[in-house]
């Protein structure tokens, strides 16, 4: 199992790439199988990078404990940590104003698209409702006419038609 | 109805939450005197208490599951909690209403903080009476997966409304 991970190159963590990468692959305990989706769904309490320690400590207990805490393959947590560090609002280390402007434009465009979709969806719904109601109305009017034109009185029951039949 | 005119498609409910389906059962949702038609906007104050839900169908022995989700949680521009489960009721007999079913996840009022959210009601027909387990949490619910897990097949009806926070300006910046 370890051999598989050795060949895979992990995304570099901020402070210590090669050491941690090899340490993880060497020291990899048997973990319960978890799919990535399950791992991502659970709230992760500790998303901080492992403290900057020498390669010796990384090989020892602390890392093993950390991986058991997460309960998932370490490479997944490494990828997750990397994602988080890049997108904190306010940090302009990775983005210059140009990127920010572009992002803003894209967000605005998406927002405008949603707004148009919202408006159009409601309009369509109303048009459908109107068409449906007009049809129902027409049908009911036709039924009404039928009943008024040829008065379909229910056959009289339990009534006496002839009252003078006795001979006396 | 042409696929591109369907309000559920235009409003991206089909896409973000559901796949294309055929409506076969009546679904009538109303908050007080406000009927929920696709795309209407309701205020959070109107949706505080669970709505009245009446369903169609024809046989009391057929049961339905009702789901209510918010695919735009916490914000429509960054819906990382999609979908947020607001209500889950199962074993609703045909021709009756949600109050006759089993409330597996109790109704939680919409309280959008950022942006204009869609709140979607989806109705599924069950194969029979079944035990449905509540998910561990409301966020990141997936209606498609849930339907697959409980063999619910495709939805038989769906409707949605829009809602933003009480003091929202419809997404417009204050002048």
Question: Mind sketching the topology for me?
Answer:
The complex is a heterodimer of chains A (168) and B (175).
Chain A (H helix, E strand, L loop, with lengths): L1 H6 L10 H9 L9 H6 L13 H5 L1 H10 L3 H13 L10 H53 L19
Chain B lengths: L6 H4 L2 H4 L10 E5 L2 E2 L4 E3 L9 E4 L7 E8 L13 E10 L8 E4 L11 E9 L17 H7 L7 E7 L12
Parallel strand pairs in B: 3-9
Antiparallel strand pairs in B: 1-2, 1-4, 5-6, 5-8, 6-7, 8-9
Keyword list:
heterodimer; A: 168 residues; mainly alpha; elongated; B: 175 residues; mainly beta; Phosphatidylethanolamine-binding Protein; six-stranded mixed sheet; three-stranded antiparallel sheet; 30% strand
Written description of the protein model:
- Chain B: This is FLOWERING LOCUS T, REDUCED STEM BRANCHING 8.
- Chain B: InterPro entries: PEBP (IPR008914), PEBP-like_sf (IPR036610), PEBP_euk (IPR035810), Phosphatidylethanolamine-bd_CS (IPR001858).
- The complex is a heterodimer of chains A (168) and B (175).
- Chain A has 168 residues and is an all-alpha fold.
- The relative contact order of chain A is 0.08.
- Chain A has helices at 2-7, 18-26, 36-41, 55-59, 61-70, 74-86, 97-149.
- The model of chain A is unreliable at 15-29 and 44-82 (pLDDT under 50).
- The longest helix of chain A is centred in the last third of the chain and has 53 residues, at 97-149.
- Chain A contains 7 helices and no strands.
- Chain B is mainly beta and 175 residues long.
- Chain B has a single domain (3-164), classed as Phosphatidylethanolamine-binding Protein.
- Helices cover 9% and strands 30% of the residues of chain B.
- Chain B contains 3 helices and 9 strands; from the N terminus they run ααββββββββαβ.
- Chain B has helices spanning 7-10, 13-16, 143-149; strands spanning 27-31, 34-35, 40-42, 52-55, 63-70, 84-93, 102-105, 117-125, 157-163.
- A 6-stranded mixed sheet of chain B has the order 3-9-8-5-6-7, with no helix packed on it. Chain B has a 3-stranded antiparallel sheet with strand order 2-1-4, with no helix packed on it.
- The model of chain B has no long low-confidence stretch (mean pLDDT 94).
- The chains are: A mainly alpha (168), B mainly beta (175).
- The interface between A and B is medium-sized, with 16 and 18 residues.
